[in-house]
Specification:
Elements: H1 4-15, H2 23-30, H3 37-43, H4 47-51, H5 71-92, H6 98-108, H7 111-120, H8 131-135, H9 142-160, H10 162-172, H11 180-184, H12 191-202, E1 208-215, E2 222-229, E3 233-239, H13 242-266
Antiparallel strand pairs: 1-2, 2-3
Length: about 270
Amino acid sequence: MPRPDQTRTAQRGAENVAAAVPLETLEDKLGYRFRKRELVTRALTHRSALGDRGPGATERGSDTGESGDNEQLEFLGDSILGFIASEALVLRHPGVHEGQLSQWKAHLVSATHLHECALDLELGQHLLLGKGEERNGGRERKTLLANGLEAVIAAIYLDGGMERTRLFIEEHVLSLLESPDDVESIGLLNHKSVLQEKTQAMGLPVPRYTTVEASGPEHAKVFTVEVRIGNRFATCAGGSSKKAASQRAAQLLLEHLNTADENGKSN
């Protein structure tokens, strides 16, 4: 007999082939193993997926009749993220005035930044979507990915508690705070999001980011990140953090694509 998690994966695949990626793959990226798999499954379930399953689907997976989509978890995750972001900013920057802290926090919890973080985790390939949302490119949509990440944050909190959630958020959402240079750049142009939109407009594959090297002493590491679009375009860049390096790599590749696009229009 197949294990329950194997059965769930098969069921997910039957509903939506593109979502039939083992949950273990996502857990590896999150750096967290769920004890209650139903929490992460719910966190990944967009309400459009329940609409495809017919009446009563919204009460799936809950003895209390709670909604089976991720909207309540998104609500909880948003509050948890806001608290931990505020806490981290105050503890790491005690001399910064409230207005600046508010500006930094607004970026760290914004849909634009969470979308970027979700792309790093390749969260989109794990979302459970309805057929219509799938056809409309929901796996790459900023709002769905940002909301999905907030729901995952809530799932980790309910499954593992606040300390484990804090570790996840600090590693995957607040890593910009690790470097003074990165903190100063908060709120500036997000080249990764711009590159994502550019590739969609050009009908190209989704950009993929890979850390290819980490060199230097622990207190002053330099990371090299490669961004690749299919087999046609790729470039590398370095930075004091993975986030900074990936932003610079995206900027370089974006410049290359803009040049290629202009050359194509002039021919």
